């Protein structure tokens, strides 16, 4: 029983650590004051290289709304500053949105650029990298007006410098994003990327199973405790 409980505790700790890696960000418009850009994701970073493997790279922890640059961010742009990288420096990440109108007046939004600026340990600018061809990645980020986009499965985005001779790569997972018409406390119903549909079903099932087992353990412990109490009274 003790080993089982310790295993459950270890699993619960792992889930807690995973939640700490999920950065949550919000931008408000000023007139009227209301949310107009909401995003959350787990991010991993790696400098260039011929091959990119994020298996052994840990996600960046501790990102939250304090990292949002409220001066440069708006309903079409989310800029996150002071993100630590693997070399001890930091970087800023900006996500730019494009709104376009389709037939019959249906508005669509799409991520048209992700922009990266790196800094060394002294805060010196190391250059800017970007990807302005987001439609070419495996999970294009887009949705209708008033709809969010959700992709639990991770995907990589290569960001290149102006001369196209150097790049950095970020991995985004558990991504949900929604610009402009944003609910007050949550996201609107999402478009789910193909890569994320299976994971979207599995994660709630795992969490539900863990909670069910914990309830069972508490119930069994309570019954055993009641029996021991009755035996003690009988002996007295």
UniProtKB/TrEMBL annotation:
Domain Lysosome-associated membrane glycoprotein 2-like transmembrane residues, every copy: 203-234
InterPro entries: Lamp2-like_TM (IPR048524), Lysosome-assoc_membr_glycop (IPR002000)
Pfam families: Lamp2_2nd
Signal sequence, renumbered to the chain: 1-18
Location relative to the cell: Cell membrane; Lysosome membrane
Ranges annotated as spanning the membrane: 201-224
Keywords, ordered alphabetically: Glycoprotein, Lysosome, Membrane, Signal, Transmembrane, Transmembrane helix
Coiled coil segments of this chain: none
Topological type in the membrane: Single-pass type I membrane protein
Family note: Belongs to the LAMP family.
Descriptive protein name: Oidioi.mRNA.OKI2018_I69.XSR.g14466.t1.cds
Source species: Oikopleura dioica (Tunicate)
């Amino acid at each position: 029983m003790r080993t089982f409980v310790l295993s459950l505790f270890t699993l619960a700790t792992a889930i807690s650590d995973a939640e700490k890696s999920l950065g949550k960000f919000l931008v408000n418009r000023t007139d009227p004051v209301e949310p107009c850009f909401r995003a959350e994701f787990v991010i991993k970073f790696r400098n260039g290289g011929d091959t990119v493997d994020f298996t052994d790279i840990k996600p960046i922890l501790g990102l939250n709304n304090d990292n949002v640059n409220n001066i440069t961010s708006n309903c079409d742009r989310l800029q996150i500053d002071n993100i630590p990288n693997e070399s001890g420096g930091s970087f800023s990440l900006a996500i730019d949105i494009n709104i376009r109108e389709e037939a019959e007046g249906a508005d669509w939004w799409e991520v048209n650029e992700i922009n990266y600026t790196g800094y060394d340990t002294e805060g010196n600018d190391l250059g800017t990298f970007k990807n302005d061809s987001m439609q070419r990645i495996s999970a294009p980020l887009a949705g209708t007006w008033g709809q969010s986009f959700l992709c639990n499965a991770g995907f990589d985005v290569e960001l290149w410098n102006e001369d196209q001779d150097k790049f950095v790569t970020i991995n985004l997972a558990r991504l949900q994003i929604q610009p402009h018409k944003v609910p007050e406390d949550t996201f609107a119903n999402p478009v789910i990327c193909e890569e994320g549909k299976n994971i979207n079903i599995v994660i709630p099932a795992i969490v539900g199973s863990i909670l069910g087992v914990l309830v069972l353990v508490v119930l069994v412990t309570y019954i055993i405790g009641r029996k021991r109490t009755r035996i003690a009274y009988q002996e007295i």
